[in-house]
Amino acid sequence: MSVYKAPRGTHDIFGELALALEKLDLISRIIFKKHNFKEVKTPIFEDVNLFTRSIGESTDIVEKEMYVFEDRKGRKLALRPEGTASLVRAYIEHNFNQTEPVGKFFYSGEMFRYERPQAGRYRQFSQMGAEYLGNPNPNADAEIILVASEILESLSIKDIKIHLNSLGCSGCRSEFRKKLVKYFSSISDLCQDCQRRLDKNPLRLLDCKIDAGKFQNIPTMQECLCPDCNNHFEQVQTLLNSVGCEYEINHKLVRGLDYYTRTVFEIRSSSVGSQDALCAGGRYDNLVEELGGVQVPSVGFALGCERVLMAAEKNSFFDNLNADDLVFVAIADEELFNHAFTFANKLLSNKDNLCSVLGVKDNIIVEGPFNNKSLKSQLKLADRLGAKKTIIFGKNEFDNGKIIVKDMSTQEQKEISYRS
Ligand code: ATP
Ligand code: MG
């Protein structure tokens, strides 16, 4: 048994899961690009203050989930717990507001949060996200929601529901806060977390799982929205309705990060158990300014890849992950190894149209040749690898300018001309 194990909450990704993640990445890239989002890769660690400042001091992530460390020069860094703060930092640092005519970006990569590991909740996990910076209008919110749901739909994840809410601007929010504090103060047996948050972050009480049953007729944010915020929220809904996108208004949706303003949303699946949020996002009109830039109203989302795959497992997404044909190159005589080796490399670059000569697709996987193995064990290996065709280099055939092509499903063999 191995002495070392992957750290708690992390996992090695291989086999089917690696292929599924690759497929998810490819599909979502096509969708991001179609909507004109450009990729930005940011570092995996950043100055810790970037996250405390943007995500908020009294959020779960900053209070207890960040991996913070000092480097050898005493710089305080954190492994990124999410992607938006880093992307906004890059946007400001590279003056994207001047160089990019439309501020649409996407990212994909690993995030780190010190959480209690369970199904769908890990300490290292992958997110893909899109951010639309510099567009204050409701069509940006609608496009972000539509891109997220397009990704999930193209994976045939059917049992999803879009939960939508508005958190208003700071004006609406301070009124809502007051109403909430008054309301919650009248409830005597709040859990410890809620009691602690009541002063600092009363909105978070709305998504408390322990106290949820005690709350009835809670004030809603919508009662507190100013005319501008209300209008914005209604227009987002009108746009979603106009393209037939179904959603549900959820007054309790507040999201766990402080930077959101106006629209917030989550896409949940009913088939993945209690960690049911596959994707979440919203508008953040003040974040760029708070991090030292100019005012750039923005909106974005992040999608949790592992959870999306948990939902996709229920349908055909995992079928045919190994769709590429494998061609195995075998030798019946050790003397022919070098010829077979050259052949395998020609096949890889489809020289002399070899793929069509062999009757396989031109994006194939090539394995072999191996020396020190009997032909029998080479053929066994080809079988285990699920090879579609095996090419056999035999002495007599090769001397006559031929090689053998064996179809592994029908076991039929034929000879074709080949000279190296
Ligand atoms: P949750 O309520 O599940 O803790 P969150 O509000 O913390 O989610 P976000 O920060 O909005 O999540 O992240 C966006 C998405 O990333 C989530 O909807 C989820 O799919 C995924 N995600 C978040 N935390 C984890 C984690 N620890 N492990 C795996 N996926 C995660
Ligand atoms: Mg969380």
Low-confidence stretches: none
Oligomer kind: single chain
Q: Could you tell me the radius of gyration in angstroms?
A: 28 Å
Bound molecules: adenosine-5'-triphosphate, magnesium ion
Strand order of the largest sheet: 1-5-6-11-10-9-7-8
CATH topology of the largest domain, by name, is BirA Bifunctional Protein, domain 2
What count of domains describes the coordinates?
2
**How many DSSP E strands?**
16
Key traits:
BirA Bifunctional Protein, domain 2; single chain; alpha+beta; Rossmann fold; elongated; 16 strands; binds magnesium ion; binds adenosine-5'-triphosphate; 420 residues
Overall description:
The protein is an alpha+beta fold and 420 residues long. The chain has two domains: 15-169 and 226-313, Bira Bifunctional Protein, Domain 2 (BirA Bifunctional Protein, domain 2); 326-417, Rossmann fold (3-Layer(aba) Sandwich), CATH 3.40.50.800. Helices cover 36% and strands 21% of the residues. It has 15 helices and 16 strands. The chain has helices at residues 15-34, 48-55, 60-65, 84-93, 96-99, 138-154, 170-185, 192-200, 227-242, 287-290, 305-312, 337-348, 354-358, 375-384, 395-399, and strands spanning 38-39, 45-47, 68-70, 76-79, 103-112, 124-133, 160-166, 248-249, 261-269, 277-283, 298-304, 326-331, 365-367, 389-393, 402-407, 413-417. The chain has an eight-stranded mixed beta sheet. Strand 3 and strand 4 (76-79) form a beta hairpin. Helix 1 (15-34) runs antiparallel to helix 6 (138-154). The protein is elongated. The model has no long low-confidence stretch (mean pLDDT 93). The structure holds adenosine-5'-triphosphate and magnesium ion. Residues 60, 256 line the site of magnesium ion.
